[in-house]
Specification:
14 strands; 2 domains; Mandelate_racemase_N_dom; alpha/beta; 366 residues; TIM Barrel; racemase and epimerase activity, acting on amino acids and derivatives; 12 helices; three-stranded antiparallel sheet; Enolase-like, domain 1
Length: 366
C-alpha cells in the first residue's frame, strides 16, 4: 500500500460565537483538511490548524509547505512507515508542526482503515471507557462568563476551563472569583492564561488572590520559553502548574522535566506534529511522573477525533479539551458527545464519515 494522491482543502470552520483568548479573537477558525488516497483506493483524512502565536505557521504558509514540500516528500511511501515519513518530513523542512500533523493524522486514519481497526487499537488499545470534556469559557466580562459557566453546569458539565490573560489583572481575579462563587465548590475549575500574564510577579499576584478558589491547575501563565519562571511559580505557591505553549517536542519536554517546572503538560497534535510525536511526549512525561492533557486548537471532528483516540489509549493522559466540534456550527462529521462525555466507536480509522458536501461548502479560495 502506497500513498498515491493528496488533496488539500483550505476551509473556514464557522464558530457558534467568537472564541477569545489572551492573544487573539477568532470569529471563525481557519483550517486545512487533507484527503489522502492510497494506490489500493483507501482514503484517509487529516487536519492542520496553524496558529502564528503557537505553532509559528499561518494558513497560507501551511498550504504552501504542504503543497510544495511535504506532500511531494511522502508520495509513494507506505502510511504504516510512520517513523520514516516523519524523518523524511523533518529532513525536508524544519518545524511546521501543524502541516506535519495533517499528514500524520491522515496516515493513521489510513492504517486503521487498512486493518479494519479503530485508531486507538494501533496506539495502545482502549484504556478509558469514555472521555470527559470540559466546558471552555473564552474571555469576556466577569459576570457574563460566570453565568455562562452556570449554564454549562446546568447542562451537565463538571469541569470549567477559564480563559484569562488580561492586561488588567484585577479583571482576571474578578473573573475567576466570580465564576467560583456562581458554580459552587463541587465544580472543577482550570485557569488558562495563554502566556497573557507574562511575568512571574504578575502571575504570582493573581495566584495569591485566587488561592482560595480551589483551582485544579494554572496553565501557561508565562511566556512560552520561560521554563525557569514556571519553576519559580510552581515553587512559590500551591496551585499546580501546566505548561502548554512551552512544549512542542522532546527538547522542551526534557528541559521541563530536568527543571521540575510543571505538574502537568498540555500536548497538542498541532504543536507536536501529529499522533506519532505526541506519543513520544506522552511516554517521556510518563517516565517523569508528569500527567498529560490532550489539547485542541479548536479543530474540526477530524483533528478532534485524532486527539480523542490518543487520549483514550493512554493511561497517562488524564484530561483533554476536545470540545472543538461543540463550538462549530457546521462541522465535517458527527462525534458522539453526551453532555460532557465523548464516546468513541469501534469503527475503523478515525471512525468518522466526512461529509464531502460540507467540505466543499466550507472550502474557500485564497
Amino acid at each position: 500500500m502506497k500513498i498515491s494522491k493528496v488533496d488539500i482543502y483550505p476551509i473556514k470552520l464557522p464558530l457558534i460565537k467568537p472564541f477569545v483568548v489572551a492573544y487573539d479573537t477568532f470569529p471563525d477558525m481557519p483550517s486545512i483538511i487533507i484527503k489522502m488516497e492510497t494506490d489500493n483506493g483507501i482514503i484517509g483524512y487529516g487536519e492542520a490548524v496553524p496558529d502564528e502565536h503557537v505553532t509559528g505557521e499561518s494558513l497560507y504558509s501551511t498550504i504552501a509547505i504542504l503543497k510544495h514540500s511535504l506532500v511531494p516528500t511522502i508520495i509513494g511511501l507506505n502510511p504504516f512507515d510512520i517513523e520514516k515519513i516523519h524523518n523524511k518530513m523533518d529532513a525536508t523542512v524544519k518545524s511546521v508542526p501543524a502541516a506535519k500533523a495533517a499528514i500524520d493524522i491522515a496516515c493513521y486514519d489510513l492504517m486503521g482503515k487498512a486493518t479494519d481497526q479503530p485508531l486507538y487499537n494501533l496506539i495502545g488499545g482502549r484504556y478509558w471507557d469514555y472521555l470527559e470534556v470540559p466546558y471552555v469559557l473564552s474571555i469576556g466580562e466577569p459576570k457574563e462568563m460566570a453565568y455562562e459557566a452556570k449554564e454549562a453546569v446546568e447542562k451537565g458539565y463538571t469541569t470549567i476551563k477559564i480563559k484569562v490573560g488580561d492586561k488588567d489583572l484585577c479583571k482576571d481575579i474578578e473573573r475567576i472569583s466570580f465564576i467560583r462563587q456562581i458554580v459552587g465548590r463541587k465544580i472543577k475549575l482550570r485557569v488558562d492564561a495563554n502566556q497573557g500574564w507574562e511575568t512571574t510577579a504578575r502571575s504570582l499576584t493573581v495566584l495569591k488572590e485566587i488561592d482560595d478558589c480551589a483551582i485544579e491547575w494554572i496553565e501557561q501563565p508565562l511566556l512560552a520559553d520561560d521554563i525557569k519562571g514556571h519553576k519559580r511559580i510552581r515553587n512559590q505557591q500551591k496551585i499546580p502548574v501546566m505548561i502548554d505553549e512551552g512544549v512542542h517536542r522532546e527538547k522542551e519536554m526534557l528541559e521541563i522535566i530536568n527543571s521540575e517546572a510543571a505538574d502537568f503538560i498540555n500536548i497538542k497534535l498541532m504543536k507536536s506534529g501529529g499522533i506519532y510525536p505526541a506519543l513520544r511526549l506522552v511516554h517521556q512525561a510518563k517516565m517523569a511522573n508528569i500527567k498529560c492533557q490532550i489539547g485542541s486548537m479548536v479543530e474540526s471532528s477530524v483533528g478532534s477525533l485524532a486527539g480523542a483516540h490518543l487520549s483514550i489509549a493512554q493511561s497517562n493522559i488524564i484530561s483533554n479539551e476536545l470540545g472543538g466540534p461543540l463550538m462549530i456550527s457546521n462541522d465535517l462529521g458527527k462525534m458522539n458527545y453526551n453532555k460532557n462525555k465523548l464516546y468513541l466507536s469501534e469503527k475503523s480509522g478515525l471512525g468518522l464519515k466526512v461529509s464531502e458536501r460540507t467540505l466543499k461548502e466550507l472550502e474557500y479560495t485564497l
